[in-house]
Fold each of these.
Amino acid sequence: MKLCRIEHGLMVCLASLVGWLSSNPIPSVSSTTALVIGLLSALLVEISTFVLNDYFNIEEDRVSKPYRPIVAGEISARAALIFGVCTTILSIILSLFIVFFYSLYTQFIIILIALLLGLLYNSKCKKIPVLGNSIVAILTAAPFVYGHYLYSDTPIAMKTGLYTLIAFFAALGREIVKGIVDLEGDKVAGVRTIAVVWSPRIAAVISSVLMMIAVVLSLILFAFPVSYVRFILFSALIITTDIIFIKSAIMILQSATIDVADRVRKLSLFGMLTGILSFIVIA
């Protein structure tokens, strides 16, 4: 579970569910079955990406995250590699199953792109300033679009596009903060994050701006009509989310240290969860 970062997998599944619900599907055995298979495929992509990240990230983790399973000796690098490859193959097989039995082709393309981006990030792109962070943000936002294509191959709705943008900016801000957390390990491994190349202070400013963009975009969601009860529940969740991200932005601006960045990293992850839950309410 530690190697897979299963909490991220849960959020991938929830985000995909949001995209599926936003397509206004008429629930049926067929559409629900495609959804379940698709969620499992997406979960396997998340597992594959994080497992292979730990495999490629051993040197950085020795310095900044010695508690990670491979570095801590809880699992061998070879076993992790085999596990990562197996989950990659299984995700593709499940996605192909959806193509063959439900004729949904776009979701398969998204799965392949996600796997390719994950591999590029883990092997090469994480060392390139901004590009590595952007890839992670794209992979974080992609499940909203992916969920739509588990129901239909038609273009996504405006609301789904908005969910995706909010998730992208929030995740990009969080990833830049993580660069501050991993500063020492990244220096040793030659990973050129914004914090390494320009300084933790500049990274803090950029991440704060990105988080605030996500907050501003979230306010647009109040314009979409929903029932009174759903509106109240959505308001409570999205306001909580926005408060979390505003607090995160202020914290990292006040002190761009590794300890504060780590607290912001954990706090913002919880904010992303409440944000996804708010999306489910009005999907």
Amino acid sequence: MRALVLACALLVGAGVATAQDYPARPVRFIVSFPAGGGVDLMGRLVASVASQRLGQPVVVENRAGAAGSIGTAAVAKAAADGYTVLVTGDVPVTSAHLLAKLPYDPEKDLMPLVKGVDVPTAVLVAGNAPYGTLKELLDYARANPGKVSYGTPGNGTSMHVELESLKERLGLDIIHVPYKGAPPIITDTMSGQITIGAPGLPPTIGGIRSGKLKLLAVWGPTRVAAFPDVPTVKEVTGAAELEGFPTWYGFMLPAGVPKEVAAKLEEAIIASLRDPEVAKKLTEAGANVVAQPSSAFAEANRRQTATFAAIFKKLNLRAE
């Protein structure tokens, strides 16, 4: 019996020592969406500062696909030692029940760490498109059922829900084209392969300012500081229920990471998000920095999951 107690004490002591020594090697950020997108932008900006605060390199690795669920599954299965961090948007967590069967349970296999930013959805068309306003685009869609397509970062994303809500509210016949992330949406919108691009705003800034894309509207309760002359969808349609659902980009861990280790990561990531240069770049990209700690982040996720579940049922959305 004494030997068993001693063994347990040694194991506990080893765990504490490990937490105190953390990190002893590079930390890996797995980004569940493609390089060049908004999630990737936030991950890389935070990694550059967090590495200094943690005293170890923070390596960024993109594992995109299946609306973020491929990278999410990789982190869910990773060792719970704090050396693998998920950088993701909301869909593989709060909208997982809309997707096909997944190899992870977002509630049981993941720990919310920090909510980084809220991001409005952009309503984009090609720079040479004949529509100068959202009203003109909607009028065209009404007059040409089945001819307007829209691209989002995947099934179950906030963007998907927003456009389907618009479709139902206005009685439109428009076609959803799911993508793996923002960069291919932007490319296909510029070329006219799809009529409407609906990614998060941050990765679209360059294309808008170059004239290759036109920003017709944004989803949200208010206009975006970076584009004060661009109206919200709610303003254009007059429909209060079309305010939209800001996408979040955040950080998560495999379930079971020691509290002391998670706390060190949480502190480093929040401080990095609040770094003046990081915050400036994210704000200029159209994101709203929130730096929400783990407990509040977890509760917000539970509320969003319940809200989206009700909307999916109402709109009869399914994995495609």
Amino acid sequence: MRRQLDERSDAYGAMLLAGVSGSPVAEIVEREDGFIDTSKFGTAFYFAPFRRWPAHHRAGMRYARGRVLDIGSGAGRVTVHLQGRGQEVVAIDNSPGAIEVCRRRGVHDARLLSIDDVDASLGIFDTIVMYGNNFGLFASAPKARRLLRRFHRLTSERGRIVAESRDVSQTDDPAHLAYLDRNRSRGRMPGQIRLRVRYRELATPWFDYLMVSPGELANLLGDTGWTVGRVLESEDTYVAIIEKSPRGPGL
């Protein structure tokens, strides 16, 4: 989702606003080929306290140091946790509903902002966090490389990115395998998924969401000034600790 959403298109924010009271709400994702899926966790995952996070999510927080940018903050679970540790965090999301939920939950600095609009006006960060599969917000390989180079300039010498993604090739589902083949035939990365989020009568615009294997991630980082320092595996997603390369970005 590149740009800020409005009231009619903010299905994601409406879902979070419905879930902030604790009511069970399903998260529905529709893929461009007609495949529809729901999260097994619903919205509860967005509001989960740290002790209930998956183990690799908890482990990844050990690498979030200094001043932090939380990209795609959702309901603010990462920001709330880091604020509790005394860290300064800027939470951004392009969903007005998500930012409203963040503020209700005590996020000190929540801004309605797309990943595309992150720039020097936000200041310098020591860590960028992209949880909730939010490496996907890079959308495509060219955009990922462009923004990774920008993030290199917007982070300190010890800057790092703590990002979550998924290896979508690890499936035996015929519908998913067919979609991956369709992407390859169109010259797209296999995990460059075009989807939208639905809630009741609302739907977000269609957007590209990039999921990569650890190997694909390492290739994407080439010449951007970043390198994979560590990968925290799980049976589902993984968290990559991405460090600045001593050589810096290529030309």
Amino acid sequence: MAPDQASQPALAIERLDDGAIWRITLGGTKGNILDGRLMSSLSEALTAAVTDRHLKAIVLEGQGPHFSFGASVPEHLPATAAGMLAQFHGLLLQLVDASVIVLAAVRGQCLGGALELVTLCHRVFAPKDARFGQPEIVLGVFAPAASVVLAARVGRGAAEDLCLSGRTIGAEDAFRIGLVDDLTEGDPADAAMAYARAHLVPKSASSLRHAVRAVRSDLRATLPGRLRAVERLYLDELMATADAVEGLQAFLDKRKPAWRDQ
């Protein structure tokens, strides 16, 4: 990370409507990379959100033209992959356990780990020029969390298409398959704020949290075990292959990978 980036806060929190809405903006790096620093900051924000009994919704967005390019590719290499996955999956579990409604406002690119994060948000807002993808397979790896949670949102066929092809789709296609809930004409954060004010702010924060726990009871019960299983497949088997390391290193070297199919 460049020195000027290290000095920038990893995220910003704006408390609105007498604290009923938090607007959290991811930042800190070009493309709002979900590196260790940003994940720690978002985890701290979620911890604070749980204890704020007046909070009714979080609007989550990225700084600048993009939501996020996803997790840090260097942190996927064998020496750091275990720590990176443990931290990221812990963050996803924390998001589910917090029982705080999170509305994702997606501009520009939403890729990889960022899409896994957005998949677990309660509602996704995006303009027609937003782009979504799980490109991990292009780098010779796979998306552990998406392999577990994406099908519940978009159906198995669409989830397998995104995870196995690595292709990026536009917001209209994402809306068609259920990945995006609201196509917006203007800023998706404005649309998310309007939704929160119309449908969430008038309600009891306590009752909303109990309702979230109820509608996500199956997810809260099954997600930890399923994430552990795919994490072991990723770390113990995938990362022992030549092609997984080759794909990641080729990306960092800005060259075409030389696959050995092993």
